[in-house]
Amino acid sequence: MADKSVYAVGIDAGSARTRCLITLLEDERMRVLGWGEAPSDGWSRGRISDQDAVSDAILKAVREAEARAETPVDSAVLGVGGRSICGATSRGGCEMNFPRQIEQNDVDRAVGRASRVQLQEDEMLLHLFPQDFKVDGHGGARNPRGLIGSHLEVYVHLVTASAQEHNALVGAANTAHLAVEETVFEPVAAAYAAVLPEDRDEGVVLVDIGAHTTEIAVYYGEALVLSASLPICGDNFTRDVARRLYVGLEDAEMLKREYGCALLGLTADHNLFEVPSSPGRPAREATRSELNEILEARALELFEFVEHELVEAGLQGSVMTMVLTGGGARLEGMCDAAERVLKCRARIGLVEGIGELPAELNNASWTTCAGLAMYSARLKYRALAEKRKTGLWNKVLGG
After folding, report:
1. Alpha-carbon gap, residue 160 to 177, rounded angstroms
2. Which of 326, 360, 351 is nearest to 12 (CA)?
């Protein structure tokens, strides 16, 4: 009998748009079957204010993706972000009493002790990423199993989130008839899709610029060394334009997308465009330099916040590449603004690793969703590998 089809699904429930991507696993490859997108509702300043409305948006995106894929799905990996996200480094260790070969149980004990940190009220542990192991004081061991030593020490990076926000988001997905396989910090998912191994080796910061939140994840080698949420997001750019040009938010968003640039001098700044009319104020003309001056100030401020996080973590000068994802990254000139402040190369983070990606998904808005689907694929491959291993062992035992 043919094997049952295995699907890997990612859901990016953003505060402006909710996206779903359905892929089919074939011969250790992923093939896109369907995708769906819906306007988000039920969010206020990056936090859930109406769980039912969030669930409705998830359901609409999933139904559209299912219609394209011509198959139903019942589980997905869900992205988590927001201003409650915090990152911190912790240390733990264990004694072996005498020199011997380090076993998995020793690694588990050291990591378990590193994870025992005092969490604030409403704070939960979302991820734990080992950074470095030390055996008898000697660091640099990514996998200490098999080494000889009497003391094992580990440094880990912890990512925490609001338990209330996390549970509300999972509950919204459950109400939309989906089981949540795992929740993943959104920049980690985006990095999974868009960051190449050579970028990690040199040091890379991924900046995921959403409508209401911006989060960063910094990798050095294979280790996640920094994660944080920043107070500047795409909505700030739009509101700045609305205030300075005296237009509504919808018109400000349109002007930003159609004529805006994050740095002066990259476009024909003297060119004119029409500013739509507003109550009591007729339509008028403005130069692109007026618009771009507004956007440049906010873009430089955003990347100054990124720089501050790197300085605080002692990583200034260690990062060679910046990768920008999220809808806010699509503003023209954002890479140039990042390079001006951080003094490192910057690029837009597009999806790597999914063959024959539809053209409309090949932009920074879909990178996180694709990364979530890729994370789901990794979970499914692990489960299949364990199942095959168990089946083989049963045959060996005559089961």
Report:
1. 26
2. 326
